[in-house]
Amino acid sequence: MRELWVRIVATLTGMLVIMLALVFAWLQSPRVPFTAPAVAPATPPPALVEAGRAVYAAQGCAMCHAIAGEGNPRYPLDGAGERRDAAGLRDWILATGAAEAELPARAAGRKQAYRALPDEQLGALVAYMQSLGTEGMN
Amino acid sequence: MTPLAAAVVWVGVYLLLVAAPLLVLLVGPVPPGAGFWWDFSMALGFAGMAMMGVQFALTARFRRASAPFGIDIIYYFHRYVAVIALALVLAHYLIIRIDNPQALGALNPLETPWFMSAGRAALLLFTVVIVTSLWRKPLRIEYDRWRLWHALLATVAFLAAVGHIEGVGYYTAAPWKRVLWTVYTLFWVLLLVYVRLAKPWAMRRRPWRVTEVRAERDNIWTLALAPDGHAGLSFAPGQFAWLTLRTSPYHVKEHPFSFSSSATNTSLIEFTIKELGDFTRTIRTVQPGEIAYLDGPYGVFSVDRHPRAPGFVFVAGGVGIAPIMSMLRTAADRGERRPLTLVYANNRWEDVIFREELEQLRERLDLELVHVLAEPPPEWRGERGYIDETLLARRLPPERRLFEYFLCGPRPMTERAQRALRALGVPLRRVHFELFEMV
Fold this sequence. Notes:
The complex is a heterodimer.
Chain A: H1 2-27, H2 46-58, E1 65-67, E2 70-71, E3 75-76, H3 80-83, H4 86-94, H5 98-102, H6 105-111, H7 119-130
Helix pairs in contact in A: 2-7, 4-7
Chain B: H1 3-26, H2 36-58, H3 63-66, H4 71-99, H5 114-134, H6 143-168, H7 175-204, E1 208-215, E2 220-227, E3 240-245, E4 255-258, E5 269-274, E6 291-298, E7 312-317, H8 321-334, E8 340-346, H9 355-364, E9 367-373, E10 383-384, H10 389-395, E11 404-408, H11 411-423, E12 431-433
Parallel strand pairs in B: 7-8, 7-11, 8-9, 9-10, 11-12
Antiparallel strand pairs in B: 1-2, 1-6, 2-5, 3-4, 3-6
Helix pairs in contact in B: 1-2, 2-4, 2-7, 4-5, 5-6, 6-7
């Protein structure tokens, strides 16, 4: 008899938290809409973009960022090249300049590690970001 | 407060504690969403962690909170809920693994932030903790060792998961949420300090002295204890306590046993123990004067929980007579007048402990005594075989549906007796037994 009650309470508890989790997921606002293009899109050389893509993968950027739906959807990078110019992108990658204050403290802290990246890798990464348009985004 | 009202309140407290973190996440500054599956996965992670946290409280043996249910059932719940919590935490991981594997980063801890590795470690350790608990016996893990490692691994797993959440820090970015979450999670771990230090300290201040170790039959011993410098312990007949012998309470090497003595005597208590394992085999070597420590009483297996019952039926097998003996001795000391029946199963007549005293108790109580022997001697004229429906139908009083039933003995026996009683129309709620393998 008592075991039966235990199974009922345990199952109800499990259902309650799953329901709360569903409500939570449902209540969370949808993704923040993208702002209109702020800078003229640049067209960096394809070889440099490819090199930047490799840097992006090697540094594990997808743990915090998503591109075309792949990676952490919290901070999508689609359209980055239409929102910031090369200098702005560089600041956001390294948490320097205006970006340092705008970024959440934790993120700014983590991004400082990228200041150790060789210049050519950083340049490639900026080129890759510039190549990201909003086209083909879901 | 009635036991039922208390039970409802404590279940409510439990649900609130489990749901609280999710409710807190929902109020105040909620960060922008990242798609249904992502957010659902995160919520499941928090929910699983809240359930894991409360697990520490469930086994801290709070007497007041466990009293309405019985501590055995709290342990049963602890075990059941652990599986659900693990399922939630695994679902948290698997949803991201399937939906967004790149966000998990590299498996190699050297190439990935520490908090992602901490999350993976927590997942692995939680799984180990639960597998070694559900299958402790098939895995041949000795009880005392298991208990130590269980507490240790569960704490490390929990702290690793707390680290994972703090490290990711997305939902807990708001400072007050971070403080709240940290306090909430560390509170559970602090309970370990209570269980491992405060409780043993309190036990040490109330030591007991062994006054006698008495041989019963069939490798069964009665251990008598008297309080040493304190007033003793009052319990309800049928309850049990955790006994510590020959070691400090801080080692937490304790074993649960039912009281077998009368509850009317709080200054001399007895346990009746059969040699079944490493610890119980040492009972015969215990000398009068040795120190013992007790944590108790616990349990709801008692006639005292049913003051309005018109009568009681006890079904005992072998050493399972111990808590029932306590109830019968107490009944005699209290001048109980209600009808009592004891169906007492043993293999052989020469194994039947307390049989002389039971004869004497018949003179002081309205007690119907039914011995059942599996291997009776040739001249035996009583019941033989196992306890089943026909035997109970023959020997139980006609008003049996209204009586309260107490079963204690080997599991096959109690299960058979339960089925038989159900077939005889006894409501399930009147049939009581302790889940001793849980404590």
